[in-house]
Fold this protein.
Amino acid sequence: MKRGFCYILLIGVCTYIGILNRKEIYVYLAIVMTAVMLLLWVGLIINCARTKLALSVAIPVSEKRKPFYPAIEVRTKGNSIPAVSAGFRLIGTGFKIEQTDEMIQIDKGYGKCQGEIALPVSGRYEIVAKNVRIYDPLNIFYLRRRIKGSSYIYILPECYTVAIDVTKTTRDFVAESDIYYAEKKGDDYSESYQVREYQPGDRIMNINWKMSARLDELMVKTPSRPLACPVVICMKLAGFGKRNYSRQMSVALEAMVSISYSMICVKVPHFIAWYDPVIMDITRYRIVCEEDVYDAASRLSMVDIADMTVQDVKEKYKERFRGEEFTTMIDIDMNGCISSGEYEYQVKYKNLKQDIEDIYLKV
């Protein structure tokens, strides 16, 4: 509003000089400027009433330190859109975002006030618009508008290489499961790994009689192996009282993604488990491929843990899935502590890449 105050001050100066020196030209100038000001205010009020604003993020996924572009969508019934400025605040990050007034007119009656933000942390963060202003055509006066609602941006966690030593117990681990390997044999005859022609030495009980009758030759089914998960990654997330919430969440997510992806590279399926405050119970996600790793990270980042205290995920997991077998449990918390049996590591935000790559886990 500095320009508006300067404009009004200029009217007062012209009026003062005109009256003091009896110069009618200054008085007339003050009258004209006052009339212009009134017209600008009337037009501004009308434009403000005819303008609709909405917060959006064109691509709600980005990478660390890569820019993304939150925007205020401006729609009006007229052909030209009013100038709009806004500030974008990311809740929970602790980073200050400056005001932007970069207006882009895309079409008649439609434009965007667009900002540019890059974050050095990973996770999902809520974006809200603050200090939104609609200006008159001369950008002298403005009215504030409040935009309800918010948008979200998901910053992908970076993945690093972790040394994983797979024991024979884990490699040969077999347990009950509701899904099966597509490429490994087993002894579960309820699921077939493949169907092939009969060979001498095959067991009679393995013959698929219906298919044999249809093909007029003996066909044998080979049982599949259950896809069991011998390893469980327990995520101890708690945002209550965390000053550097975004950095600590970034450390936990990137440690999880790196360990999980490294286990998939050595063909160790596993579960990622965490406490969900909505259902007030343990949630787990089965990881069998690379896509599962990032899907689990995305789901985990959606959990509202801002006011959640530390939960004993390991004990709650054992209680929730009592009777299920596993060989290894890995604990990861938001303080960067990673522990598994006799192995324990401390990961810090400043040396995140190096600290994660120095980890050695035996599962």
Summary: The first strand starts at residue 51 and ends at 57. The helical segments are 2-20, 24-50, 168-171, 209-215, 245-265, 290-301, 313-320, 352-357. The first helix runs from residue 2 to 20. The chain has three domains: 51-156, 163-167+229-362, 180-226.
